């Protein structure tokens, strides 16, 4: 293992740092193609994708959060309804099928039993437009799907998923832009600008990775805690969920994520001087709203740990710790903001001395119910 690990202590750390490469490889087909297009998803994909009336995403764990993020893109950019459901819930409920919906399964391993069964169930209800986003070629879920987009993260060994998640996001963004184009909602200028966003993403991810020393400095403040809250809004809410999941998986700190606007409907009761609150607060249209949510936390003595970007212009003050990524990367911002929450979980787990790559009670691939 030491050979494979190179300069890294854990596979998770190595996999976090591989993300510029993993994302670069995953977008290669799109960049080489010079355009978004159905051909990126397999043979006869245009026929499957052309007349869809909506998207239903099914997945588990981290892959489910990738789906939740994509929902914001699909409705905003492609302009069709998108719903996202935990596979183990969907498979056991009397779902109303619409065969004009595209069923999208997301799975790193391609072998997760619940996701596979949810796909089979969708097919039994009459769905035949099926697409899978998967990291393992020729695994069960892509084999059972009409279309596939393979992420090229490479083997992921750490149980806590990192590079699989961010590459799923670029695959889902590519799918969104392709559907938008087929529906006449993406003109040449818009397409060129989204392609450019993708091209620049590996560089932006590298900038985010360079924040590691600052994030590590925060980890001592989290290590003695038993609870943490994560807040985000809009497309960054699922990133807050993913940040909380990473922290609980590997450090065993109880962490919960909330959409920041929901704070007043319950979780605010938990906030006191002991409660660290991580906020994903990029400079987007919701920033002012997030700032007032942060004040609600401060007013109760909560300690804020804010991930933002250069453009957002707010500084540190008592009880408000800030780490700034270099620039706001627009529509792909949730991908960039994933990096700091991954690094935070990693360094907190290191400080607590847990088994980072093999957290207790969890498995990399869950092929049983
Ligand atoms: C397990 C893993 C998670 C993963 C989930 C879904 O719980 O520990 O990291 O997100 O399964 O796995 P999949 O391979 O379907 O993405």
UniProtKB/TrEMBL annotation:
Cellular component GO terms held in the UniProt record: cytosol
Which one of the record's GO molecular function terms can you name?
Answer: carbohydrate derivative binding
Top EC class of this enzyme: transferase
Localization, per the record, is: Cytoplasm
Residues at the catalytic site: 364 (for fru-6p isomerization activity)
Record domain SIS: where: 45-185, 218-359
Q: What is the superkingdom listed in this entry's lineage?
A: Bacteria
EC code? 2.6.1.16
Keyword annotations for this protein, in alphabetical order, are: Aminotransferase, Cytoplasm, Glutamine amidotransferase, Repeat, Transferase
Q: Where does it mainly reside?
A: cytoplasm
An example GO BP is:
carbohydrate metabolic process
- What is this enzyme's catalytic activity, as reactions? D-fructose 6-phosphate + L-glutamine = D-glucosamine 6-phosphate + L-glutamate
Subunit description = Homodimer.
What function does the entry list?
Catalyzes the first step in hexosamine metabolism, converting fructose-6P into glucosamine-6P using glutamine as a nitrogen source.
**What name is this protein filed under?**
Glutamine--fructose-6-phosphate aminotransferase [isomerizing]
What lineage, starting at the top, does this entry show? Bacteria, Pseudomonadati, Pseudomonadota, Gammaproteobacteria, Lysobacterales
Which region of the full protein is contained in this chain?
Answer: 241 to 609 of 609
